[in-house]
Every structure is written in structure tokens, then in C-alpha cells.
Amino acid sequence: MSVNYPEALWGLLGLIPLAALVVVRLVQGAGDVQRLGGTEDGGALLKVYRWKAIITGGCILLFYASSILALSDITYGEREVPVERSGLEVAIVLDVSRGMPADDVDPNRLGLGVDAVQHTIGELDEAYVSLTVFRGSGSNVVPMTADRTLLKTVLETAGPGYMTAPGTDIESGLVAALDSIGSSTRRQPVVLLVSDGEELSGDMRSAADRIARQGIPIFAVGVGTTAGSTVTLSGGSLLRDAQGEIVTTYLEPEAMRDVAERTGGRYYHYSGVGTASDIAADIRETEREIQEAGARTEPIRRYPVFVGLAVSFMALMIGVRVVKWRELF
After folding, report:
1. Alpha helices in 123-269, H assignment, sequence order
2. Measured over all CA atoms, what is the biggest interatomic distance in the chain, rounded to whole angstroms?
3. Overall pTM > 0.85
4. DSSP letters of 16-83?
5. 20-41: pLDDT as tens digits
6. pLDDT lower than 50: segments of the chain
7. Are 313 and 200 in a shared domain?
8. Residue 329 domain-assigned?
9. Is 301 helix (H, G, I), strand (E, B) or coil?
10. Other CB atoms closer than 10 Å to residue 205's CB: what's the count?
């Protein structure tokens, strides 16, 4: 079992004040019924009221809980679905954080990353492509398209100035890229992640698991060196942290490899055109394997069950309130 939107589960905490309100209303209502019912029918009326109030209150709580569980998009179990796809959709995720201008590679990490994207996509000439860039947040700047002109223009101007959010959040980049892939696509989607793997916020492994559940592999491309480098800013000064210390940024190959392997993809340390050819060949091989299999497994989303329960509890609550019991209430 897995949860696609675990943050929604925090909403279950709302059951506590909601349950308190239900109990308070039950007690107050019982007092009102006793005062208004008189001595002749007061006992029977109070009994009916209490039962209806308990059932109604329980339905409200169960409706709320079911709605939250539906929003969290719980998946449980797997099923095989036929694959009738032709062609590729490549969702490119490019790191433009402030560490990418580091010059431990030539010309720098960002320049080498752009080179990796251009040469890899150049060998996948029939693929549709999209481009997502990220720093402290991710943004899809080129929607999924067969037109390479816009992609080329954006790549030529890509840099830290594209984003204002500070930090490096690879998770947000991966999630934004996933959103750029159409749910009803007839092509095989893949994610091409280009980064040094340094993550200052977010959890890229969580995003990778979510992408894996959609049957989409990540091909992760590392740029930079494990020896690390300082970052020279446009004015010639060195990048410093909030405490004024000079920042040294490193390639994190193991993190990138972990993200790729979680999805059935691969990790590459980019060193030039030869690496791009290897990446493109592996993407083509993945496409061929999926098509030959004729089917793939996907998790079963259980939100319809919780939506049905929520509707049932709401209908029961309305029915209990509308129908008279024993001609009393």
C-alpha cells in the first residue's frame, strides 16, 4: 500500500475538533428535547433523538474521514494493463540552482547539463519533449511538444535567474515534470533528470517513488565532480551561505543513482557526446522492452472506494434526519 498525497492525511486531525462539536451538539440537543418534550412523551422523544443524533454524528465523522482518504489517493495492489504505445515523451528536468555555475567541469555544470540535454534529445528526433527547471521550486517552462524550437531557445538562456525561490528542491522539479506528462498519452513517457544531485530541501526519493508507480523510468544524468567546487558569481565574488562561509558544492552520484534505480531507470555521469548516445540508446531500449511486453503493471488506485463511502454516509445522514421515527422525531 502507498499514498500518493500523504500530506492530505494531516486533514484527519480535523476529526478531533469535529468529534468534539458532534458531542457538544448531542448534549445540548438532548437538553433541549427534555425541556420541550414534556412528561408524557419526553422519554420516548429523547430516546429517538439520541439515536438519530448518534447516527447522524457518526455519519458526519465517517464522511469527513472518507473524503480525506479519497484525497490522499491510496493505492493498494497491482494490475496488468495493456500497453498500446508508439513513440516517446521525454520530460526533461534541469537543475538551475546556484550551484550549477560551478566550474569543476568545462564550461560549468549548467553548460555541461545543457549539452547533455541537447545531444540526448538530438538522438531522439521523433520524441515529444517538455522542459522543467528547478531551484527552490520547480516550474514547467516548455509543455510537452514535438516542436524543438522553443526548447532550444529556452536552453540557450537557462540559468539561476530563471527562478527566484532559493535553495535546491529536486522533488519539486520531478513533480512538475510528472504533471507535464499527459495521463492519456499514447507514447511511452520517460524522465531525463540533469543535476548535480545536491538537495537542500524536499525529498527526491519520494517523488521518484511516485513516478515509479506511474510506470515511468527516470534517467538521471550527473554533472560535476565529487571533489567539489566553489561557485563564482557574475560579479567575480564567491557564493557564500547565510553565515558568510564560502560554499563548496559537490556532485552526489549515489543520490542520483538511487532515484534512477527506484524507477527502473539508470544513472550516468555525463562526460560528453558518447554519454548522450548511451542515454538515448537506453531510452530506446526501455521503449522497446515495454512494447514487446505488451503490458505493464500499475498500482490500483482506491480513491473510488472512499468516494463511494463518503457519498453513502452523506446519504444515510440525510435519510436519518428526514425520516420520522415512531412518528415522534
Report:
1. 148-157, 170-179, 204-213, 253-262
2. 93
3. no
4. HHHHHHHHHHHHHHHHHHHHHHTTTSHHHHHHHHHHHHHHHHHHHHHHHHHHHHHHHTEEEEEEEEE-
5. 999 998 888 888 777 776 545 5
6. 39
7. no
8. no
9. strand
10. 16
Per DSSP bridges, beta strands 88-95 and 128-134 are parallel
The span from the CA of 327 to the CA of 110, in Å, is 77
Residue numbers of the domain that contains 37: 2-78+301-322
Both 99 and 197 in a single domain? yes
With 0-12 / 13-18 / 19 or more C-beta atoms within 10 angstroms meaning exposed / middle / buried, residue 10 is exposed
Residue 193, beta-bridge partner list: 93, 220
* β-bridge mates for residue 81, sequence order: 296
Q: Is the dihedral of CA 251, 252, 254, 257 positive or negative?
A: negative
DSSP 3-state of 187: coil
- Report the DSSP beta bridge partners of residue 3: 74
Total domains in the chain come to 2
